[in-house]
Amino acid sequence: MDPVRFMHPDAIRALFSSALSAMYKQEVPLYGDLLDLVAEVNTQTLAAQPALAERLRSSGDEQRLSVERHGAIRVGTAEELRGLRRLFAVMGMSPVGYYDLSIAAVPVHATAFRPIEAASLRANPFRVFTSLLRLELIEDPQLREQACQLLNARTIFTPGVMAFIDRHERDGGLTDTDAQAFVQEALETFRWHQSATVSAQQYRALHDQHRLIADVVAFRGPHINHLTPRTLDIDRAQAQMRSRGMTPKAVIEGPPPRQCPILLRQTSFKALQEAVTFAGGDGAPGHHTARFGEIEQRGAALTPAGKALYDRLLSQARQALGAAPCADNAEQYAHILNTVFSAFPDDYASLRTHKLAYFSYYVRDATKARGTNLEALIEQGAVGFEPLVYEDFLPVSAAGIFQSNLGDSAKAEAMTQGNQQQLEAALGARVIDETTLYAQAQAQSIASCLHALEIPATSA
Ligand code: OOG
Ligand code: NI
């Protein structure tokens, strides 16, 4: 008998990510325009920078360019979050990192489901930023109770997808046919529902407490709220959004443009106002604002020391600006950010020797190797290094993305402290610490260099 053949989780993830993109393009046609814009900018950038084009070709990143994306959803209960953990596990995605958004008065905390192995990230890096509403932050007890009831009354997973998840957990995988069907069923959880589950009046009450609460509570499921392709030139893409009928958010989140990009820069077109119908006798028409399109440009992953320097400089820049970045001070903010970040070394050699970023090491020329010391091997040209790409998110940037899509007026003080244990209890699992993943990847690359050069691991 033939052994059962399972589809690789990386392949299921690729299938799901492209099916989700197709669905979202249909739901939000402007996202399709964003994809076109990004493809054009990427083509222009590659034509203008042959060295970059060559680097992407040789690393195999060129093909991956058009499939790189992340998405985001927001759920309301522990049960929903736990279900998502099991659903994403089928596609080889694990919860990584803890993000506290209450720092920006958004009543959620979050994790990102993503592949963690280098080979899987290379195969398809699709990730989903997943937020859990913190119901305890709803002040009005009656409204909190009502939200709770609405959430408990809904089921965001189809019976079909649950059956496939069970089968995956029982058998250790899904066959090709099952995987295809699983993807179709899984899409239903992410689909937009034009009819709200609440009356216009209930919607208003939830919305007035916080726009995000209405978005999570008033619908049948956690519709995907954006997808994010990768651009090679985010400044150019941002500048061209308006000519394509998109309203860009005022500033690009993250570090300023640099020779050696670090972490993550992102921007979005602002959420669209969409027609919805409310429950109740007359199915009253109304509107809801939640869904948008985003673009991202990723750079080197930073060590804790590098991240601390980044955080310090970012808050220094914001303090110097004296207000939250917005359309009126965007130019000034860009200027301040550039000036302040001149304190962050901008060449890979310094980033490495100051231990600010993580790197992957590789054998460049084994014939040049003399001795066993890693630094000496690098100097001799025997071993080379390249930055590890940052695969995660940034809390301050995420808060900025949330804010600009919830209406810029929603700026406020931190509501409370993060509570990672609470998120993990809801998730039914610990979140993986992202720093550990980068440190491991770096250590592994060093180990395999030494192995290839036949140097005992203990001597470097
Ligand atoms: C998530 C916002 C965060 C990002 O890229 O930082 C995010 C949301 O609006 O639900 O997606
Ligand atoms: Ni995003």
Model description:
- This is 2-oxoadipate dioxygenase/decarboxylase.
- Strand 7 (273-277) and strand 8 (285-289) form a beta hairpin.
- This protein folds into 3 domains: 9-299 and 392-429, 2,3-Dihydroxybiphenyl 1,2-Dioxygenase, domain 1 (Roll); 302-346, no CATH class; 358-389 and 433-460, no CATH class.
- The model has no long low-confidence stretch (mean pLDDT 92).
- It is globular.
- The chain is built from 19 helices and 11 strands.
- The chain has helices at residues 9-27, 29-48, 50-59, 61-64, 78-90, 118-123, 141-153, 159-171, 176-190, 200-209, 211-217, 234-240, 304-321, 330-340, 348-353, 374-379, 395-406, 420-427, 434-452; strands at residues 69-75, 94-100, 108-114, 127-133, 226-229, 264-269, 273-277, 285-289, 293-298, 359-363, 383-387.
- 2-oxoadipic acid is lined by residues 72, 74, 129, 131, 225, 266, 294, 393, 397-398, 401-402, 405.
